Structure formats: C-alpha cells, structure tokens
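Figure caption, in words: inputs first, then the predicted bound structure.
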Amino acid sequence: MTDIQREAMEYDVVIVGAGPAGLSAAIRLKQLDAELNVVVLEKGSEVGAHILSGAVIDPCGLDALIPDWKEKGAPLNTPVKEDNFYMLGEAGQIRVPNFPMPPLMNNHGNYIVSMGNVCRWMAEQAEELGVEIFPGMACSELVYGDNGEVKGVVAGEFGKNPDGTPGDGYEPGMELHGKYVFLSEGVRGSLAKEVIEKYKLSAGKEPQKFGIGMKEIWEVDPAKHKQGTVTHTMGWPLGSNAGGGSFIYHLENNQVYVG
Ligand SMILES: Cc1cc2nc3c(=O)[nH]c(=O)nc-3n(C[C@H](O)[C@H](O)[C@H](O)COP(=O)(O)OP(=O)(O)OC[C@H]3O[C@@H](n4cnc5c(N)ncnc54)[C@H](O)[C@@H]3O)c2cc1C
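Bound structure (flavin-adenine dinucleotide present):
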C-alpha cells in the first residue's frame, strides 16, 4: 500500500490511543512546554468509548499530574470504604484479613470510578492545554523515515478488503508525522506489535504474560448495594493450575462492576 498518496500533517508529538497513558503523556508534555504541538488519535468514536477497566483507581498518578484534580472536577466520587478478600472453595468461603495482603490488594485511599469518565475528563484537561484530540481515527499503519525510524502513523483509513486491497468507498486517510511517536494503544496494540517485531524489542526479555478479564456493570437492588465496597476473590471455580479470581466494586447509582 506504499504507492497510496496521502496528505500529511506535522506535529512535535503524535500519540496513538486516548487511554490513561496517552492522555497523561499529552498533558505532561504540554505542562513541560506549552509550545509543543501534540496530537492524540483515538479509534473509539469518542474518548472513553473503548475504556473497559474495572476500575479501582489509586489517585497517586493524578496527584502527581494534576494536583488540584478535585477542584477541577475529576470524576472520582466514590472513595473505597470497605475492602474484602475471600478465598473460595467448593464448600464455601474464607475471609482473608487485610493485614497480610500485598499492597496491590489494599485499596485504602483509592476510588471506584468509571475509567471512561476519568478519560473523558482527562481529555478536557488536555484540550484546555492545547492538545488536539481526534476521536474516530484508528491508526492502521506506521510510517517509516529514510533511516528506518518511525516518523508517523496513517490514521482514518477506511474500506480495505480483507486481503488489504482498497474496496468500494476506500478512504486512504492521512499521515500524521511527529518528531516523536508515542504508542499508547493499551495491551497488544497492533502498531506496538509491529515495532516490537521490527526493532526486536523483546529480544532477551522475559516473554509477555497476558490474562483475560471479563466485566459487566449491573444495577442491583438498593438494599444489596454498599457504595464504596470492594470485594476480591481467589480460588473456586478455577482449578489449582490457573491464577485468577473475581471482583465486585460498588460504585454510584446502585451499580456494581462485576468481573
Ligand atoms: C477487566 C479489566 C479490569 C481492570 N481493572 C482495573 C482496576 O480496577 N484498576 C486499575 O488500576 N487497572 C485496571 N485494569 C487495567 C487498566 O485497564 C490498564 O492498566 C489501563 O487501561 C492501561 O491504560 P492504557 O492507556 O495503556 O491503555 P488503554 O486503557 O487500553 O487505552 C488504549 C486506548 O488506545 C486506543 N487505541 C488502541 N489502538 C489504537 C490504534 N491503533 N489507533 C487509535 N487508537 C487506538 C483504544 O481505543 C483505547 O482508548 C483493568 C483491566 C481490565 C481489562
């Protein structure tokens, strides 16, 4: 597809993905130098549309990035009030006290949030600093310079056939070039996989390890809802050779995240 002619736009930094990583990077760059031209490209129809996590958030990252996040209306509305951990077995459950738990499982000072809403709010903060954010723009290809360096991405290309040839109504999209290209696509990003392969970034490293998470949001009987409660479990129904567990986070509006 290299013979396709596309318009190109030049930036200082091109960021792929408007998740917490990409938006934090964009905000930090503009805090460091307000003159930088920073663009964030997001494949979801709006920022937050593809943000799926639980989520219990440790605000230490926000404290460092935007210390007055409370005054600025960050949607961290539900502090964790109760933290429970259970080992499950076929016959029942055992409550594990909090003191021997690793720090990761200690949610004191954390908040139960909609990470989609947190990202929408972060996008507003970034735009106020002058970051350009283009939702609905999937980055489908990397653009390489003469020395084999990544110099940009192709975004907004639509209508390819399954074999990669242009189909009916094909739109070539455009190239966005940057002095730096920051890939923050989340786990197993397609462009990240390409650069890992091309530049042998995983050579000599431990293999990456992945888990599968499933999550639903339920509205429950208000009598059973305990806002601010976090529950994790391990064990049943997983066998002894599989690591994993479950979570239930009680957020606002009689809703719970179940995963
Ligand atoms: C079910 C589940 C529960 C979780 N619960 C928690 C929790 O409670 N607390 C916690 O701290 N962490 C939790 N996590 C982990 C957390 O979600 C991740 O650590 C975090 O989202 C990583 O942020 P990120 O910005 O790197 O990537 P992501 O959040 O994945 O964001 C990546 C963004 O990039 C966009 N994108 C990807 N590829 C492209 C492309 N080629 N072009 C344009 N846009 C692209 C995506 O649409 C997305 O918006 C959970 C994860 C899962 C799956």
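The chain has two domains: 1-76+113-210, 78-111+214-259.
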